[in-house]
Amino acid sequence: VARLLDAGESALAEVGGETVFVHALTPRPSLYVFGAIDHAAALARVGKLLGYRVTVCDARSAFVTPERFPEADELVVEWPDRFLRRAPVDATTAICVLTHDEKFDVPALLAALETPAVYIGAMGSKVTTADREERLRAEGVDDAGLGRIHAPIGLAIGARSPEEVAVAIGAEIVEATALARRRAAAGTGTASLLRS
After folding, report:
1. At the N or C end, where does the chain have fewer CB atoms within 10 A?
2. Rounded to an integer, what distance in angstroms lies between the CA atom of residue 49 and that of residue 100?
3. pTM to 2 decimals?
4. pLDDT tens by residue, 126-177
């Protein structure tokens, strides 16, 4: 039952030899977007559409403004890794690192890997991704940790514009979340009511 509640899944479960219906009522999941770029504004819109509580965080105050991110629920001017170390993160949280700067990327990803977030994604080309992986390995991240990072971020659908990239990222978050729900349901011997 605890796994179902953690995953926000409603399903039938066996409790004390009885079959009961567990109905999870959970708060909106969090989407943390690091890097106040055009792609982040588009992702904030997609995140809201998907039902997330969206936080945009960047260390540069000139870029983190309500005018640039009207859909964000929260705007934070802070180094991404510092924010992430104190932010509430659970098994429904999605973390997107769009900073394009190694002094932000690597520390933010290291902090993200310390969390139970369902999704961790990082923007960058295949070359940037390979370079970032080398830096993360140098910091002690193993294959399992690297495997948690979706990079390049988003499903490979040929996206080019910030809006298209945001849709690709949103779709990948939906996919990762659905997979986590299925795993949680399978791990508890429940019959999932979600058919995905």
Report:
1. C
2. 25
3. 0.87
4. 999 999 999 999 999 999 999 999 999 999 999 999 999 999 999 999 999 9
